[in-house]
Amino acid sequence: MNAGTNRSNIRTGLNVGIVLKKDQKSGKITKGIVKRILTKSSSHPHGIKVQLEDGSVGRVKEIY
Fold it and tell me: Name one Pfam family in it (predicted).
């Protein structure tokens, strides 16, 4: 299980890699800094949904 599936591992200001909705088929990673955590539950099998500082929204796949 990757660290991006648990909400407790993610905080605002963290440098992460997310997969945007439009990139789910290709799995392309978008890097950025977490601005807001959008998932309310403590975990999610596909990754916690976050908003980056540039406004992109996606699920966390990597934490740097």
Answer: DUF2196
CB atoms < 10 A from the CB of 24, how many? 12
- Class of residue 35 by CB neighbours under 10 A (exposed 0-12, middle 13-18, buried 19+): middle
CA dihedral 29, 56, 51, 33 (to 10 degrees): 60
User: For the whole model, what pTM was predicted?
Assistant: 0.91
* Distance in angstroms (rounded) separating the CA atoms of residues 47 and 30: 14
List of residues 6+ apart from 59 with CB closer than 8 A: 4, 18, 19, 44, 46, 47, 48, 49, 50
8-44 confidence digits (pLDDT tens)? 999 999 999 999 999 999 999 999 999 999 999 999 9
